[in-house]
Amino acid sequence: AGVDLVNAAVLVGGLPISIVDAAKLQGEPRVGVAEAGASYIFNRGGQEISLGGLLCLFDGEGPCANAVKDAQRTKTDEHTTDTLILIWGTRSWPGRAEAVADVLRGALTGLGATVS
């Protein structure tokens, strides 16, 4: 349900959103710019995305999500119970990320999720 709500929020809000399985993250997550040559596999077929210069979510193993594709290693699955959701906002739309977060938070809590 979380991925479906995120996909709907992307369509309505017009901003990319990453959702990753928090239990699969190694260490503390942070946002930063990927170095030249950085990449990760983003699907079960083994396809890679080149990340050099892109703003990404990182964990202890390196980049694991960005506004284009999320890494396969941290994707949610049928065993996911705790997620990290990141709305990739922009200064060009002041307040948009917050508005999308409010709607998404309301939808998730309406389904019984705990949001912090």
Features:
7 strands; 116 residues; alpha+beta; 2 helices; single chain
| Total beta-strand segments | 7
- Percent in strands: 25-35%
N- to C-terminal separation?
17 Å
Mean pLDDT: 94
Helix content: 10-25%
Q: Quaternary state, please? A: single chain
Number of helices: 2
H/E series, N to C? HEEEEEEEH
- Low-confidence spans: none
Radius of gyration: 14 Å
Which shape, going by the Cα principal axes? Answer: globular
Q: What does this 3D model show about the protein?
A:
By secondary structure, the protein is of the alpha+beta class. It has helices at residues 2-13, 96-110, and strands spanning 17-21, 30-33, 39-41, 48-50, 55-59, 62-66, 83-87. The strands form three sheets. It has a three-stranded antiparallel beta sheet, with no helix packed on it. The longest helix is centred in the last third of the chain and has 15 residues, at 96-110. The chain is globular, with a radius of gyration of 14 Å. The two termini are 17 Å apart. 25% of the residues are buried.
